[in-house]
Amino acid sequence: MNKKKNLTRDENFALALQNHKKNNLQIAKKLYNEILKSSPYYEGAQSNLGILYNQLGEHQKAKNCLEKVIQINPNNLAAYYNLGIILHELGENQKAISYYEKAIQINPNNSAVYYNLGNTLKELGENQKAISCYENAIQINPNHIDAHNNLGIILKELGENQKAISCYEKVIQINPNFANAYYNLGIIFKELGENQKAISCYEKVIQINPNNIDAYNNLGNILNQLGENQKAIICYEKAIKIEPENLTSHWLSMNTFPVIYKNFEEIDQYRKNFIKNIKKVNLLLDAQLKFSKKQLVNAINSSTNFYLHYQGKDVLELQQHYAHLIEQITQNIYQEFHTERKKNISTKYIKIGFVSSFFKSHTVSKLFKNWILKLDQKFFKRFVYYVGNKFDHTTNEIKKNVDYFFNHTDVDQLINQISQDNLDVLIYLDIGMKPIIQILSSLRLAPIQCNTWGHPVTSGFKNIDYYFSSELMEDQNSQKYYSENLIMLPNLGINYDFPNLSNIKNPNILKKSNTTIFLNLQSLFKLLPQDDHIYLDILKKNSNCCFWFIHGKNNSVTSIFKERISKLFKKEGYNFEKYSYFHPRCRQEEFFGLIEESDIILDSFNWSGGNTSLEAISLNKPIVTYPSTFMRGRHTYGILKILDIDETIAISKKNYVKIAVKLANEKNFRNSIINKIKKNKNKLFNDDKPLKFLEEVIRKKLR
């Protein structure tokens, strides 16, 4: 019988190493431990055992092993490097950094160490230091793909898009099949509005990895924006086919609506699809699948039902169904923020918070910033929570003049901060516009929570108590369209600054003499197919006119609108192109110039001008409006009521046409309206009455 040969220590180490490389981890572990029983200072065995424990997820044991290696050999670079990795995984980032730095002292030419140090610094938000590390890694190894890629990610976060693009392009140059680089390029191109380039990038990702769900979702989002709704839905469905339980893909599909409708029938079709998809998502949630908090948050944060609100119909029931869906999810992951909060009646100041995605030069800020800036500071402490990432002079003005300003785009950070601030009242200025606000407004973060008309649609959320509206924009039956308790503020309900008209730039447009210019100031997606005939009806009674519009955010939206209305004109023997002009989207000074060049403003039905109508009035332009049932279609009505102008408020679509033609044909009538505007327009601006009423309402609600 042959005796089993006793292996030397080094032979056992070689055998352990062999098994380690073959991923026979348990055998390798046993062999390393046997070596260390007899030779506890065997550096190689101690080091490799540490690496093996890390592979097994036994991080503490791995840490202990590698610390022993350093005791054996204080200059063991690999031990410092691997300890850095382990400590980073354990969340001990500062310790990880110190070990990486020690490794660099031992060998300053190791690209992997710089790369991992960069990752840790990036996680801590120390972006400039992280950039320096990635650059060092690239200097040592110019083909370090991950360093190029991560450098691009940071540069993108810092707004240096062109530099980020160069990084990703370098990655692709090194490895044309590196999918992440194409994916990251797609994100940047989408943000820059270069949709076709973004589409090409996502298509390349899918070509490399046909199972990349995020690429399908992002591609769908772009196609949806371009008006290719059915193609977008196909993308989401492909993602769902790959992963039937992917909640984000279901959510995106549910919230897919045309940016602009091709015909009236589409409206009902998409409303039915929305209801059907809500049921699908409910079934998914009811199936007791184990969704992580991250998966649930990412789904809600992927999209809103924004375009549902532009169909000209009552949305209360649909909003409540949608809100209930979100509430189901947030009750699960943020249970502690669904309980009632006690009023702080004994405090000296009323702590009032304002939440918005648009504390910048934007309609929402123009309408409501003075609610914040002009609140009586003897009674109120003002807390502002900005969930956007773009800053300008408006942002700085608000930040400078409030008691507390918090900016973040992470939902957990926002929830915790708002909750800790122990507010008395929390006002959301634009529920329904940005996904993150959906999560916040579903929670109970203050004893009293309110909505208002930055986005003039009911929220549907049970935790939103009141809706601050305008007495002139609602009628006696309006409450039935709101889940919130309706509070009517006097006049327009806002304190609006007179626009700055000092730098008006006239657009370079060839205007025919004696031609009446009818200007529609609204985004094209607010113009519904059933109202297209208005322009034709006006033209039939005044052929010497031209209709001006503002281009959509992309050419597809504009094309759909043009095609839709051109068909209508053609049926009656008219060429729409001959009577229309579409001005490119432009800066405010040129926008004002466009208003100045026009003669008459045609307010859109169902979703009227608010900020734009106020701007037009500041320039003394007559506006024709036909108020609809809902507040969102009655903004201009309220404005004209303050001006004591009933003459341009239509009682029907037929009457709307009659008024528009009369303004065009009867100079005296038009001048009388202009004179009324000049006489009364100051009533619209810097109106303190709504704010005083708001302050009083809040005080009463807290008693």
What is the strand and helix layout of this fold?
Layout: H1 9-21, H2 25-38, H3 43-55, H4 59-72, H5 77-89, H6 93-106, H7 111-123, H8 127-140, H9 145-157, H10 161-174, H11 179-191, H12 195-208, H13 213-225, H14 229-242, H15 247-254, H16 265-286, H17 293-300, H18 316-333, E1 350-356, H19 363-373, E2 380-386, H20 393-401, E3 404-407, H21 411-420, E4 425-428, H22 435-441, E5 448-452, E6 466-470, E7 485-489, E8 516-519, H23 533-541, E9 545-550, H24 555-571, E10 580-583, H25 588-597, E11 600-602, H26 611-618, E12 623-624, H27 635-642, H28 653-665, H29 667-680, H30 689-702
Parallel strand pairs: 1-2, 1-4, 2-3, 4-5, 5-6, 6-7, 8-9, 8-11, 9-10, 11-12
Helix pairs in contact: 1-2, 2-3, 3-4, 3-5, 4-5, 5-6, 5-7, 6-7, 7-8, 8-9, 9-10, 9-11, 10-11, 11-12, 12-13, 13-14, 14-15, 15-16, 15-17, 16-18, 17-18, 23-28
